[in-house]
Write a structure and sequence with these properties.
Chains A, B: Pfam families: Lipase_GDSL_2. By secondary structure, chain A is an alpha/beta fold. Chain A has eight helices and seven strands; from the N terminus they run ββααβαββαβααβαα. Chain A has a five-stranded parallel beta sheet with strand order 3-2-5-6-7, sandwiched between helices. In chain A, helix 3 packs parallel to helix 4 and helix 4 packs parallel to helix 6. Strand 1 of chain A pairs antiparallel with strand 4 of chain B.
Chain lengths: ~260, ~260
């Protein structure tokens, strides 16, 4: 096989099933919408892994990011990190990660995303995203209806604590923060049972939930990292009306970023 | 910026606006659906360029494919080539490409996708896709309503000739062929005005048109290249239930493809 040349940089979405589902049909989910608005600008890569927590995710991210100067691979212009929904599982769930360890793992992921301190390369823009609030009423009913029935594996206040931790790490590390937890909680009028307007199963976002998340993400990018807003990233290759039609080759020299 | 490591291979979609629009909201378009089913398997890259014909596209593809052994860049497992809708414009449109030259350009793109004859690398799987039929009734009305009014720039039988040429090149070169032209024409009962069920403006596919295209594409992959069907490509990193929970690091060794 030939290789895919790095004609444009990468917008990497790293997280659990809520990230993996970013291109789900009939959802207008955030990955799909990013792919659309960043077309001809950045390649939006799905690095979402259903069921994963940060304890497992850190091994994945280590392999997804190449800290060496390998010229053939595309550069990561943006790295979004979205965990917490599974880490916040309560014991004895195997997905449970203690809060201090969760914080350590998120910091470790940020440091994997950053260029080495002695490098003169441009920084990758890092965005932390908090998990959505849990509707334990729906989640409990869902788990109890399974065969065999399962016990509730998440608690409302515990997921909130993990969301708060993401916000605090973002502040401490000086990276952008997309507060999905608060935006969804506000949209539901701070009423747990009303969360179902934004969740499919008490845990995962539905189309309306992803819509809120996407708007918040784009708003944060516009405010904190305007240079990576899609409107500010030029096309990798020219618009067809800008091509020199009589001598097209001249329009395609040195277009690679 | 750090680089994106090649943890999985690439499914490259190369074409014009009908490819670029593959992640359009409210469409369940083919790029989005491929992104979804190939999640954790292949990265689906949008290399669609609105308005482009093969004459301009060949310069782009030359830059998107790295024929050298650059280890950092991901390998192209699948290359889909979808042109003809703009090449088939009639004179004096600047998008017009004469049919013999269109055929030459498509063959050139295939040869760019192939590994060098003296290489022992695996082949990139190449798929040619024919352009959809044109509804000249709607297209004419659309162009005449513009300010200033424009003349009809495509003819039904000419686009059909370009679609036939794609089929013939696929056969001659021994690569897979997705016959969008015929599938949409059949679905419309071979009735030009009925094409509007599958097109938004006489030229671009709508949700129903993309649905037919996607089903045909997946069917062709299943028949001709079953090894690249998403069901036959394992996850790049393990499903969370397969992770060794007490010693997770052991689950992430040598997972890179």
């Amino acid at each position: 096989m030939n290789r895919s040349a790095a004609v444009q940089d990468v917008f990497m979405l790293f997280g659990d099933s809520i990230t993996q589902g970013g291109w789900e049909p009939d959802m207008n989910s955030f990955g799909q919408r990013l792919s659309h608005v960043y077309a001809r600008r950045l390649d939006v890569l799905n690095r979402g892994y259903s069921g994963y927590n940060t304890e497992w995710g850190r091994f994945v991210l280590q392999q997804c990011i190449d800290p060496a100067e390998v010229p053939g691979a595309p550069q990561i212009r943006v790295l979004a990190i979205w965990f917490g929904a599974n880490d916040a599982c309560i014991k004895p769930s195997p997905q449970h990660v203690p809060l201090p360890r969760f914080i350590e793992n998120i910091k470790r992921m940020i440091s994997l995303g950053r260029v080495p301190a002695n490098s003169n390369r441009k920084e990758t823009r890092i965005i932390l995203i908090s998990p959505p609030p849990v509707n334990t009423i729906v989640r409990k009913a869902d788990l109890e209806s399974r065969s065999p029935p399962m016990k509730l594996d998440r608690e409302f206040d515990i997921t909130r604590a993990y969301a708060d931790a993401v916000r605090d790490v973002a502040k401490g590390e000086g990276v952008a923060f997309v507060d999905v937890w608060s935006r969804i909680w506000e949209a539901a009028g701070q009423n747990e049972s009303a969360l179902q307007k934004f969740l499919v199963d008490g845990l995962h976002l539905n189309a309306e939930g992803y819509n809120i998340m996407y708007d918040e993400l784009i708003g944060v990018i516009a405010r904190e990292y305007p240079e990576i807003h899609y409107d500010n990233i030029p096309y990798t290759f020219p618009a067809w009306k800008d091509i020199n039609w009589t001598n097209p080759e001249s329009s395609f020299k040195a277009e690679i970023v």
